[in-house]
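Researcher: Structure for this, please.
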Amino acid sequence: MSFFIKRLQAEDNNRAVTLIELIVVMVIISVIAVTALPSFSRLFKKSALDASIRDVSQTLIYAHHRAVFEEVICRVNFDIEGRRYWISLGDQASGRPPARKKLSENITLTRIVAFGVERTSAPRNFITFRPDGTADRYLLYFEDSRGNIYTIMTMSSTGQVKTFNYKYEPKIYKAPRL
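Model: Predicted structure, token format:
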């Protein structure tokens, strides 16, 4: 019986992992992690951009639905310098101030275009949604620190909100001259 116990102990010693094998495996894992790290950081930055754009787009859609269902004029205001946006109902001169959302750190609202006319002064940076389902037609251009550009467009006749993951420039149809 002691022969079998000694034999089992001998087999256990042969199955052990040496320190060199452990170090080699750790080096391989470290090399893989170091090469994959830049890809993961780009992925996280892109997902932050996507989340910010999705949040602005959802805010615009919410304002459109709220205007229609509550039958009130609803505005989404933008503060370009402060990188903030918020919803206000009607004139909302009285009452508590609305909650303001802030864009992510690496995202900026670079331009607001309404019917081809740029609006950069603070009091005019808003999109109005009306109870009949219509809205101001705007193009909002967002850019991140890496130069990626997103465009959000509101349609005037339906109040629909569209998002593009590139710089969208609408083509203006001009009737041919006769």
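Researcher: Any notable elements?
Model: The chain has a mean pLDDT of 77. Residues 19-70 form the longest helix (52 residues).
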